[in-house]
Amino acid sequence: MGKLAVYKYLSFMMLVITILVTVFIIMGLFGGHANPATGTAMALTVYALPLLIIADVVLLLFWLIRRRWIWAIIPGVTLICCIPYIGTLYQLGWFKGDSKNKSGINVATYNVAVFGREMNGYKAGDILSMMRNREIDILCLQEYMDNSGDRKNSERYLEYFSDMAMGRNDMVIYSRHPILESKIIDFGPTPNSGMWADIDINGHVLRVFNVHLQTTGINGALHQAAKQSAQGRIVERSAVLRAVYGRYTQGLSIRASQADLVANEIKQSPNPVVVCGDFNDVPYSYVYRTMKGDLVDGFKECGEGFMYTFREGMKKVRIDYIFHSESMTGVDYYKEDVTYSDHLPVFMRIIF
């Protein structure tokens, strides 16, 4: 086979790969419209978007280096279509608001991972100090544990926050403003749940949602495989992969139904809303789109830099969020790199 034939064959294969990557990226960008319960394959493409976009950039460079301008149009246009998605992960901060001399509220959400199940209260106290230093007005905690030795965590938190509303199991909303009413959103036979609280902020009634959606199930499947291996049982890799896939797809369906339930509560709210919590899902997923609805993603509005909220291992992904109604404006949105939990706290300043 001559050099020309090899060159044509290589170009043809790269063109096929370019088209396939483009197709999968388009599927991923629209994958959030597919309910995982009925369109699992379509929904799963969302989670491959970061890798697909990297592949698209490589292909664009390939065609540019080869000076095949026509074929470079395909990955170039595809990359432009990905800009809204990229904006959910990275922001230049050009539109970051000026929070100085503007009245508003400081909101925070944090999955505290039951404070590491420590009973001395040090970690809970450090987190409270962090919230106090940042003058947080409303704090939503997930995987919260109130028991802390001889003193409950809520006792010390209420020395700074004036009100609190407890949800089911591990949910709590702390506020420095009066809480008028609250409600638990029961997800059924699962440890996860949601809640909302109506908070009076200087005459403005705000409904704050705190949610903790179903986990992915991956860690559970891997832990079970490791446990069996430690007991001397032979664990085949294919069996582990099937277990991980099964747990993950099951988690997708459960989270989707939970998101539908919360979204319905959001739509019925007579007041402006702020939605906080651990969604256990990535941007552009069905859960993200459903929970966001007509609300504003605070990070896209006034965030800066690369945003991730789960810090364990190499899985640095954004799964914790703060959304708000369009009648309000966000002027600051950021995370704090602390090691109290496998999640990172997310902070936002909102003005009316």
Question: What's the helix and strand layout?
Answer:
Blueprint lengths: L2 H27 L10 H5 L4 H17 L3 H13 L1 H4 L3 E2 L13 E7 L10 H12 L4 E5 L10 H5 L5 E4 L5 E4 L3 E8 L6 E9 L2 E9 L5 H13 L6 H31 L5 E6 L7 H7 L3 E2 H5 L2 E2 L13 E5 L4 E7 L10 E6 L1
Parallel strand pairs: 2-3, 8-9
Antiparallel strand pairs: 1-11, 2-14, 3-5, 4-5, 6-7, 7-8, 9-12, 10-12, 13-14
What does this structure look like?
The chain is an alpha+beta fold. It folds into two domains: 3-86, no CATH class; 92-351, 4-Layer Sandwich (Deoxyribonuclease I, Chain A), CATH 3.60.10. The protein has eleven helices and 14 strands. It has helices at residues 3-29, 40-44, 49-65, 69-81, 83-86, 122-133, 153-157, 218-230, 237-267, 286-292, 298-302, and strands at 90-91, 105-111, 138-142, 163-166, 172-175, 179-186, 193-201, 204-212, 273-278, 296-297, 305-306, 320-324, 329-335, 346-351. The N and C termini lie far apart (70 Å).
Compact summary:
The protein is an alpha+beta fold and 352 residues long.
